[in-house]
Each structure stands twice: as structure tokens, then as C-alpha cells.
């Protein structure tokens, strides 16, 4: 957080100065709204790369600790040597990268290629009929179907250079669903597709992953148009499309179902 004087660095009980950090803007706002000492302060958001490459080294140079905080009913946190923070997170991210090639990174997520090692983690997600009713034929997937889907995605990576990627939380490493690009029902259009397990919906993860995927499609893959489809009754998915500034195009039949088709063009 910062105010008109700059960034506050509190004095810890041992006398060291501590630069406080939170994992989300929402948590900073929650503290600012309840702690009178922070009146006039504003959240200041940065990427992990900026935190790692600029702020943690500055803390090291100036002998400051990194205050790792979260906000529940009251403010809680730990004051940690910034070198330990960097080493711990880099180790965790390295382990995630070894599980499958990381394709995209957002402030809270990694999008990486699926591997067979992911299979034991998938039943709580793709065995849930609340998710699968809008995916494929609508039925929950067993181990054989999940394994076949991983192999289908891995073929797409080789043959098309893109596919559906695993969406992984940076904090904790949980696999929470998928997001990526694939050819629409065997046609010429490339479609955005996303689905998250029930426990991780409503937190902005789908939009965060989908926005990074769209940018990748335009800026890296050179696409000029990306579509997305869903059944009209899937209001949550349509809401995500609209927040991504995708525009309704038409209704059509794809994958044996009547769907609405949304479109976004490069530059939109």
C-alpha cells in the first residue's frame, strides 16, 4: 500500500523495518477499510515478476523484511527474510513447471500442458456432473475418459501448437480446471474453452485465465479471430464471455448441441 508519502515500512518488534505485501488487492482494501492508521493509503498492485526482480532485491539491499500478510477477521502475517521468500516460491514454481511445460502465467495462475501425472488429481473436477453437464456429452468422466482427454490435448500441443491447458493455482499448486484453445468442432474457427471445478468459481480465475489465453492467441499464435460457444442456459459461461468483451454472433449446432456463438477479433 502507499499514500502521499510513499510506501510505508513498519518497524517490527525486533527493530527491523518490514515492507508489507498481500496476495490480492481485495485483501489490501479490506485492511484499509478497517484500520484507521492506514487512512489515505491506496492499494498498489504488481506482478510476481516485479515483486521477485525489483522489490525483494530492494528489501535485501536495505535490510528490510518482507511482511507476508492476509486479511480475515483481523490482519495476520509473518515477517520473513526476502531471500527465503524468493527461494521458497521459485522452488514451488519450478516443481510445477516440471509437471508440464508452463505456457502462460498470470498474477495468480499458471497455465501449463497436461501430463499423465495429473490424472489422480482430476476426479474431483471432471467427475462432478455440475461441471461436465456443459462439457462434451454432458456426462461425468471416469479415469479412462480423463486419460484419453489428456492424450488428446497432448496431441494438439504437438500438431497445432496449442490446446486445452491445465489451470494451476500459484498459491498451493492445485489444479482447478482447464483453459485454452482448440479447433471448433473440426471446423476452421479456433475456440476458447474453459471450465473450473466448483470450489474455484466466482473468484475471477476463469476471466484471468481466459484473458491471458486470448492475448496469447492474438499476440503469439497470430490468430485474427477467436470464438467461444456454450449452451444458452449456461449463464455463468456467457457472463465470462461478455466480461471478456466477446460479442454474440449467432446460434448454431456444435458438438451435437444447440449453442450460442460469441466472437472477439484481434484489436477488440
Word description of this protein:
There is one protein chain. The chain has 268 residues and is α+β, with helices and mostly antiparallel strands. It is built from eight helices and 14 strands. It has two domains: 2-87, no CATH class; 100-265, 3-Layer(aba) Sandwich (Aminopeptidase), CATH 3.40.630. The protein has a five-stranded antiparallel beta sheet with strand order 7-8-9-10-11. It has a four-stranded mixed beta sheet with strand order 3-4-5-6. The protein has a three-stranded antiparallel beta sheet with strand order 12-14-13. The longest helix is centred in the middle third of the chain and has 18 residues, at 82-99.
Defining key terms:
single chain, 268 residues, alpha+beta, Aminopeptidase, 2 domains, 8 helices, 14 strands, 34% helix, 29% strand, elongated
- The number of helical runs is 8
Strand order of the largest sheet: 7-8-9-10-11
CATH architecture of the largest domain: 3-Layer(aba) Sandwich
Give the CATH topology of the largest domain.
Answer: Aminopeptidase
* Overall mean pLDDT: 88
Q: What percentage of amino acids are in beta strands?
A: 25-35%
Q: What is the name of the CATH superfamily of the largest domain?
A: Gcn5-related N-acetyltransferase (GNAT)
Low-confidence stretches: none
Total E-strand runs: 14
> What class would the helix/strand composition place it in?
alpha+beta
Helix coverage percent of residues?
A: 25-40%
As for the number of domains, it is 2
Gyration radius (Cα, Å) is: 21 Å
Along the chain, the helix and strand elements come as EEEEHHEEHEEHHHEEEHEHEE
The CATH class of the largest domain, by name, is Alpha Beta
Major sheet characteristics? 5 strands, antiparallel
Which descriptor suits the 3D outline? elongated
Amino- and carboxy-terminal Cα gap: 32 Å
